[in-house]
Amino acid sequence: MTMNVLSYAAQSAKAPLAPYRIVRRDARPDDLVIDILYCGICHSDLHKVNNDWRNTNFPVVPGHEIVGRVVSHGSNVSRFRDGDLVGVGCIVDSCRVCPECRAGHEMFCEKGVTFSFDSLEQDKKTWTYGGYSTSMVVDERYVLRIPKGLDLERAAPLLCAGITTYSPLRQFGCKAGDQVAVVGLGGLGHLAVKLAASMGADVTVFSTSRGKEEDAARLGAKRFVATREPGALDALAGKFDLTIDTVSATHDLNKEITLLRNFGTLILVGAPPAPTPLEAFALIFGDKRIAGSNIGGIPETQEMLDYCGKHGVTADVEMIKMQDINKAYERMLRNDVKYRFVIDVASLKG
Ligand code: NAP
Ligand code: ZN
Ligand code: ZN
User: Fold this and answer.
1) Best residue for ligand 1 mutational test, from 113, 255, 335, 336 (most atoms within 8 Å of Cβ)
2) pTM > 0.85
3) Range list of H helices, the chain
């Protein structure tokens, strides 16, 4: 029996999210049926609802930072049992055989990855719906284990914000003593600070919100720079080995480049709606690099969760009811999140 499931959806660009019924497929032999407990709210959910990237297929049910409990499973399932606490992140399927899938980079599947929402299933005709819903059916290959000891609601944001910041820190070799700058102290930014600090880096936060200074220190940053204050950046030219830019809105990158040391790298993970001009000389003088990083594959996501289990890294969260989602989006647009909203999905069931 296919399941008719309650969710929250936006029916058109910028429309408020409201209750909506969706159908989840019958469990196939490799599938887990997951009762969703918590779902983090990523700024990508908001970009999608607002059609900021001009590629949203409506109605859209966002949500890709999902923690839940396995309630039933198909006959081939071998890695999980009913009752297990599990995570589902951004990726729910891919072709599994192309070189990228084989390398564990499913997000770059050559046949087209299936993301957990607003994405086509591998049949290339069925749209996926995300975690703002009571349950989900996912192939066990794309399901993550949540390490024991982590609070589930605080672990949910690791499934996107965690992997999106862990992956570039690893890929670009973040190590003890490195000077790491994190631009934007939101959901991704605050996990970037915690993760880089846990790797021994000396972390500086660049923020437009002076009110976040104390939090930055508590999260593990050594320095806080209020970027909108005159002269704030003057003493920092040429300082950083790595800068992770998590900003969700279009902004000037050239200043950030001047703050890199020679051969330093600026990594863009924030995905603003519009492009921004780049000054070639800002890169040329100092052999500086600019790179992007897209979430992380399934094996690396499990590695990140295990790392967070070992080092006790989780998100700072504010729990909300599903019914308060539109208010949460408004606050997110005002940079008023400390530091991730997480939906208590029980509020949708009750
Ligand atoms: P978020 O919680 O809203 O944080 C974004 C932060 O950016 C804000 O808290 C604010 O920090 C800063 N900011 C906002 N507007 C700004 C402006 N005009 N100028 C300078 N700074 C500004 O969002 P998030 O969930 O962390 O996501 C951040 C971005 O990453 C989004 O664009 C999202 O779509 C993208 N993302 C990318 C990937 C990937 O795979 N690459 C994965 C997930 C998300 P301050 O108050 O400290 O200034
Ligand atoms: Zn996300
Ligand atoms: Zn593939």
Assistant:
1) 335
2) yes
3) 43-49, 99-102, 152-155, 161-171, 187-198, 213-219, 254-258, 280-284, 298-311, 325-333, 346-349
Nearest to 173 by CA among 44, 267, 40: 267
- If the chain, 350 residues long, is cut into consecutive pieces of 10 residues, what is the mean pLDDT of each piece? 90 98 97 98 98 98 98 98 98 98 98 98 98 98 97 98 98 98 98 98 98 98 97 95 98 97 98 96 97 98 98 98 98 96 94
Cα–Cα nearest to 57, from 116, 6, 120, 101: 120
Question: Which tokens sit at 216?
Answer: 């930055």
Q: What is the dihedral of CA 158, 160, 166, 167, to 10 degrees?
A: 150
**Atom of ligand 1 at shortest distance to CA of 269?**
41
Q: What torsion, rounded to 10 degrees, do the Cα atoms 9, 10, 16, 17 define?
A: 10
The residue nearest atom 18 of ligand 1, judged by CA position, is 249
pLDDT more than 90, % of the chain: 98
pLDDT digits (tens, 9 = 90+) for 220-253: 999 999 999 999 999 999 999 999 999 999 999 9
Q: Which residues pair with 40 in a beta bridge?
A: 342
**What is the residue-wise DSSP string for 10-50?**
BSSTTPPPEEEEEEEPPPPTTEEEEEEEEEE--HHHHHHHT
Residue 199 CA to ligand 2 center (angstroms) comes to 22
Give the ligand 1 atom nearest the CA of 339.
2
